[in-house]
Write a structure and sequence with these properties.
The chain has one domain: Rossmann fold, CATH 3.40.50.1820. About 40% of the residues lie in helices and about 15% in strands.
C-alpha cells in the first residue's frame, strides 16, 4: 500500500528471530486450546519459503491432512529464484497444479510461505479457473528488495544479482482475481510487515497475527488456526463448486 513506509524490520527483531522461531515450533507441539474446523477434502498445494524445501512445511501439511485435506508439497526441492525464465518456471509449477486439479476435478487452494507466496499468487493469476484461493504467509508481494533482511540471501542465491526489477515488482503487487489472503505479523524479523499488506478489496484481505516470527509462520498455532478457517470457508462458495462440476461434465 502506497501510504505505508517500506523498511526492514528493526534489528532487535532480526536478532531475536531464531529464538522466537524455536518458540513458535514448540508451541506447535502443544495441544490446541480448541479444535480446528474440519475440511471438505479439497486439494491444497503448499510452497516453502526462500532457501528451504518441503521439509520445512511438513508440519503444517501434516496438520492439514489431519483436517481432511489432500495436501501436496511443491516437489521442486529448495526454493530459490528460478534459474530459468520466470514465466517458464510458472508453467512448470502450473503443470503440477493442473495434474492435481484434473485428478480431483476440484479447484486447488494454494498456500505460500514468504517467497513461496509469490508463486502462489502468480499461479492464481495465470490459472484462475484451477485455483480456489491463494493464502500467503509473510510474503512481501508489495515490497522493495532493500526493505527486507532476506535481500542479501536472495541476491546471493542468484549469482550476486537481484532478479527483481521495477517491472516485476509492479507485476507482483497486482492481486489475483480469486480470493487472496495475506497473513502477516508486525513482529516479523525478516520482512517488513508493510510489504505484506495489500489493498483490501473484493478479492483480497489482510489478516494480522501477533507475536509470530518469520521462520515460525508455518508452525505457529495462531497462523494454523487462521489457515484452517480460510480453507474451511466457502468464499468461492457453491458457485465455484458448481462451476467445477460443469467443467468436469463438459470435458
Amino acid at each position: 500500500m502506497d501510504n505505508l513506509a517500506l523498511s526492514p524490520p528493526p534489528a532487535i527483531l532480526l536478532a531475536l528471530e531464531p529464538l522466537r522461531a524455536i518458540s513458535d515450533y514448540f508451541a506447535s507441539l502443544a495441544p490446541l486450546s480448541e479444535p480446528l474446523p474440519s475440511g471438505d477434502g479439497h486439494p491444497v498445494l503448499v510452497f516453502p519459503g526462500l532457501g528451504v524445501g518441503g521439509y520445512a512445511t511438513e508440519g503444517m501439511r501434516e496438520r492439514l491432512r489431519e483436517l481432511n485435506y489432500e495436501v501436496h508439497d511443491w516437489e521442486q526441492g529448495v526454493n530459490q529464484w528460478p534459474e530459468t525464465d520466470f514465466d517458464s518456471f510458472l508453467d512448470l509449477l502450473g503443470g503440477q497444479l493442473r495434474q492435481i486439479y484434473d485428478r480431483n476435478s476440484r479447484s486447488v487452494s494454494l498456500i505460500g510461505w514468504s517467497l513461496g507466496g509469490v508463486y502462489a499468487r502468480e499461479l492464481a493469476k495465470k490459472y484462475p479457473r484451477l485455483v480456489r484461493q491463494a493464502i500467503t504467509l509473510a510474503t512481501p508481494f508489495a515490497d522493495q528488495p532493500n526493505s527486507t533482511h532476506a535481500g542479501w540471501l536472495f541476491t546471493l542465491l542468484n549469482g550476486g544479482v537481484s532478479p527483481m526489477d521495477e517491472a516485476l515488482l509492479r507485476r507482483l503487487s497486482i492481486d489475483p482475481v480469486v480470493p487472496c489472503t495475506s497473513i502477516y505479523s508486525p513482529s516479523d524479523g525478516i520482512v517488513g510487515w508493510a510489504g505484506c499488506v495489500g489493498t483490501e478489496s473484493e478479492h483480497h484481505q489482510n489478516i494480522e497475527v501477533e507475536n509470530v516470527s518469520h521462520w515460525g509462520m508455518v508452525h505457529n498455532p495462531d497462523v494454523l488456526r487462521v489457515v484452517a478457517r480460510l480453507l474451511a470457508e466457502h468464499r468461492h462458495g457453491t458457485l465455484r463448486t458448481l462451476l467445477d462440476t460443469c467443467v468436469t461434465k463438459l470435458f
